[in-house]
Write a structure and sequence with these properties.
The protein contains nine helices and 15 strands. The chain has about 325 residues and is an alpha/beta fold. It comes from Paenibacillus hemerocallicola.
Length: about 325
């Protein structure tokens, strides 16, 4: 059955604050800053809002590291709790990316997924820090790659430098999230699209304003981006979808459309040899379609092709 999810990704520069500013005032300035940013997307009633990496950190230029740590300690969970209140009042999820201090005094660069009730549904700690985050920022590398269950689907997170490392991506490939939330200070270029296709997942990236925030389909196609004029993007996607290769499946596509018409969609991004099939109705799921027409999902096709290559007599001596 169709599972429509409305996603908003917000691009915003870090707020420049004089380091001499009182820490409580800095927290209040940060909350007012994010109030203004959220006003741009809340009228669209998104199901989830994705924020950029370290979204509530004062702009680092001219802000001493020791003062930054003082700010983190004073801020505590105040800004997270502000976002939790927004999530609760607007019945949406928020991917809140920020540095946080643990009980042992060490820090993590984390995404906290806040649910519609304002509760923390899960925490992802950045697995692949930039070295300076460890050597200067007292942060520890995260080791887990959790996938979170939400009321619309399975969600995974990545943060900035993470996008360069196959180790994390392959963990997600095995866990099959339906949506990857990417909070970042850098865009990543083609790696965003590669992650989406490799994980067979939609990808929602929130990046600072020097690069666009994007929503990407499971075939690596950019669905929507923020622009140089408007530093946010909102788009509805359908998570009841599957990537299907044209080989051995394409002969069924016309029969499917003839029977179900606009109750299904078959989208070809071109050049890839694979399409996205989705159920656009409450009457059946995309997996019902796959069973009815005997379709083979892309990963099953790859596995069958590899097994055939290695079958006795098929591989050169």
């Amino acid at each position: 059955m169709a599972r429509y999810v409305k996603i908003s990704c917000l691009s915003a520069p870090q707020l420049r604050v004089d380091p001499k500013t009182d820490l409580q005032e800095t927290v209040e300035l940060m909350i007012r800053y994010w109030e203004r940013q959220l006003e741009q997307v809340l009228p669209d009633n998104p199901d989830i809002i994705v924020l950029p990496e370290c979204c509530d950190r004062p702009e680092k230029s001219g802000y001493p590291l020791d003062r930054m740590k003082e700010y983190y300690r004073h801020r505590g969970d105040r800004i997270r709790d502000y976002f939790a209140g927004i999530a609760r009042r607007h019945s949406c999820y928020i991917a809140y990316s920020a540095v946080r201090e643990l009980a042992d005094g060490s820090f993590r660069n984390s995404t906290q997924l806040i649910d519609r009730q304002g509760q923390v549904a899960g925490i992802y700690n950045k697995n692949h820090l930039v070295e300076g985050e460890r050597t200067k920022g007292d942060m520890l590398y995260g080791k887990d790659a959790p996938v979170f269950e939400t009321d619309f689907g399975r969600v995974a997170c990545a943060i900035c430098f993470d996008l360069n490392f196959d180790e994390l991506r392959l963990k997600y490939v095995g866990q099959r999230p339906e949506l990857i939330l990417f909070s970042s200070a850098y865009h990543g270029g083609l790696m965003q699209q590669y992650w989406a296709y490799s994980c067979r997942a939609h990808f929602a990236g929130s990046v600072y304003t020097h690069a666009p925030s994007s929503i990407i389909s499971p075939v690596g196609e950019i669905i929507a981006t923020s622009t140089n004029y408007y530093h946010y993007v909102t788009r509805t996607i359908n998570l009841d979808c599957e990537v299907i290769h044209i080989d051995y499946n394409g002969a069924h596509f016309r029969k499917m459309k003839n029977k179900y018409g606009d109750k299904i969609s078959i989208h070809d991004p071109g050049l890839l040899g694979s399409v996205i099939i989705a159920s656009e109705t409450d009457e059946f799921t995309v997996h019902d379609l796959i069973r009815e027409f005997g379709l083979e999902p892309l990963d099953d096709y790859w596995q069958r092709a590899l097994a055939h290559r290695c079958a006795p007599g098929n591989l050169e001596e």
